[in-house]
Amino acid sequence: MNYWKANLLILSIILFIWFIVSFGFGIIWSESLDEIKIWGFKLGFWFAQQGSIYIFVLLIFVYVALMNRLDKKYKSKEDD
Amino acid sequence: MDAQLLTFIFVGISFSLYIGIAIWSRAKSTSDFYIADKGVNPVANGMATAADWMSAASFISMAGLISFLGKDGSVYLMGWTGGYVLLALLLAPYLRKFGQYTVPDFIGTRYYSDAARLVAVLCLIFISFTYIAGQMRGVGIVFSRFLEVDIELGVIIGMGIVFFYAVLGGMKGITYTQVAQYCVLIFAYMVPAIFISILITNNPIPQLGFGDQINGSSVYLLDKLDQLHLELGFDPYTSNSKSSIDVFFITAALMFGTAGLPHVIVRFFTVPKVSDARKSAGYALVFIALLYTTAPAVSAFARVNFIESVQEVNYDEAPNWFKNWEQIGLIAWTDKNDDGKINYSSGTALKGAKPNYNDKMGAYGQRLVTNENDLSNPNEVYIDRDIMVLANPEIAKLPNWVIALVAAGALAAALSTAAGLLLVISASISHDLMKKTLMPNINDRQELLFARTAAAVAIIVAGLFGIYPPGFVAQVVAFAFGLAASTIFPVLFFGIFYKRLNKEGAIAGMLSGLIVTSSYIIFFKFINPELNTDENWIFGISPEGFGFLGMFINFGIAIFVSAFFKAPPQRVYDLVEDIRKP
Fold first, then answer.
1. Does A39 contact B211 at a Cβ distance shorter than 8 Å?
2. Which residues of B touch A40 (CB under 8 A)?
3. Average pLDDT, chain B
């Protein structure tokens, strides 16, 4: 698998999770998740106003780590 | 010390800091001026991006909006953070690899066409000015409420400060001022939030506090809020009133719009390496998330405090903040049932969008308005949503220094965003319009002079927007994001991920996105605002969310038109191959 294909695979997986936690848990299935209550938060409400944002942050750092590994594997050389 | 004196001191100190940084980091070349000579540390760039991004709207208006919208307010929280994932994965590293000065630069080179470059410049200037108008209004509100100077004078002082560091320092000056402004604004946002969280729930972490039990009882704050909402005739705070499809589209339009905003993208041109651009987007989102996860907590606390401190209270015993904001004209009370008490509930208090005060006082000392009462409901209070964050420390009776801190933070948020926008406007004029299109023979020094002149002119125009705010500021924000999502994002994305797209396809795509999205917004927001209800919308999508559909129209038209014309030249294929390489 070449660098670009590997990159596209990483992108698709991360964007899939990105979609599920925000549009999925925060919007589409939000009302059903609201049935579950953890502490004072209804779960769908929590994903819409808190959880999705934490996971966004996490996703970017996972992406950074995976890409750095990939760069090393293909011995990137940056010119500037 | 009283709040006003403290505000003078805090604002004075923060402004001197910004000026000091500007003198220290003067720009010496166009590379300095446009992209800080690619020398910004990724963590510092993350902070600068956060300040650049979080505007007067994020700092002042957002928590207030969510406070009144409840769960529907999630569109802003997810929409304005989720875009960074798109930016980090799909655009920032590649555009940094391309390594030029501006966003239209990439579009002009990738689509080998000055026409494409100019369409991009046009979209960029429109988006940026729309955005700036809101910042300057924010500066005006803060000055008039906390320092009791005229809005005009406030805006002029703000313009002077931005002029100083943006014109002198360019991107370099702006970057390091934004780092300082981020520190000021986040501190100013967190301190009152933590105070209020402890006061209401005894939990020092606001992100957890708003899911906690209210002090001295076993009732959860959000349950209490739902119950208060039902009593007053609102939908429950924690459930949606908008349709799912509309929430979906608005969130998506804000996300893709965020990823397509030129003043944010250009921040990733300033870091030394491609891997730094990725890392920097991560740090930016950490710094942004700190405020964005606190905001919904602030909204919930403010909502409870607001309802409890005014509901059924006699006007003569109403808290001071209520009367102060009434003086500014952002609160009005009309005693519908003549009982001297403030009755707050769902529904509009007055007919007409804003209260028109006459100069008379009512029986209880309230300011009288000429608007007719809206008798379809018992609500007696008009309140501008923008004031919730600014009034919050007063509502919660926090010490004066916290109130002063919030004023300094709001100014930092407004000025940092204004400066970032001014820079992309001036760069697109001096670099894309002058150097790359009209006057290719000018040298570096002349280009720098053009850049500084363009920045100065843009500041004056922005200041005029602040002094004479166009009545449509709130409406045009939808415009800025809708256009960024439907014009700039698609061409950048295709520019990297779809080699075969030629200039004809790109220009047709941008223009169709621009025309479809702006016609839809103009139709519902300006020509027929009375038709702006969900039964008239296409697929139930409000104008705020239409940019997302516009984006797909752009994609479709671009691919379709592209197929009829010849493929891009080999050098474009080589360019795309090169930016895809690590």
1. yes
2. 210-213, 220-223
3. 87
Contact partners, residue B467, CB within 8 Å, separation at least 6 = B136, B140, B151, B152, B155
Residue of B nearest to A2 (CA): B581
List C-alpha distances in Å: B570 to A31, B113, B502, B566, B576.
52, 15, 11, 12, 10
Kindly determine whether residue A67 and residue B221, on different chains, have CB atoms separated by under 8 Å: no
Q: Do A11 and B90 touch (CB under 8 A)?
A: yes
Does residue B335 come out as left (phi exceeding 0), alpha (psi in the -120 to 50 range) or beta?
Answer: beta
Residue B138: predicted pLDDT: 78
Residue B449 CA to residue B430 CA, distance in Å, equals 9
Provide φ and ψ at B220, rounded to 5°: -70, 140
Q: Testing the interface with B: which of A60, A63, A67, A71 to mutate, by most B Cβ within 10 A?
A: A60
Element (H, E) at B212: none
Backbone angles phi, psi at B342, to 5 degrees: -80, 120
Count Cα neighbours of B89 within 13 Å in the Cβ-side half-sphere: 26
Task: Calculate mean pLDDT across residues B233-247.
Answer: 86
Q: Strands, DSSP E only, in B153-223?
A: none
CATH of range B3-302+399-469; options 1.20.59, 1.10.3470, 1.10.4160, 3.40.190: 1.10.4160
| 8 Å CB contact of A78 and B278 | no
Checking ipTM against 0.95, whether it exceeds it is no
**pTM higher than 0.80, yes or no?**
yes
> What's the pLDDT tens digit per position in B329-354?
888 898 888 888 888 888 888 887 78
Report residue B110's pLDDT band, with 50, 70 and 90 as the boundaries.
very high
pLDDT tens profile B137-183 = 778 778 777 777 777 888 888 888 888 878 877 888 888 889 999 99
The residues near B338 (Cβ < 8 Å, ≥ 6 apart) are none
Closest of B287, B31, B283, B265 to residue B171, by C-alpha: B31
Domain parsing of chain B, residue ranges: 3-302+399-469
Structure tokens at A5: 């294909």
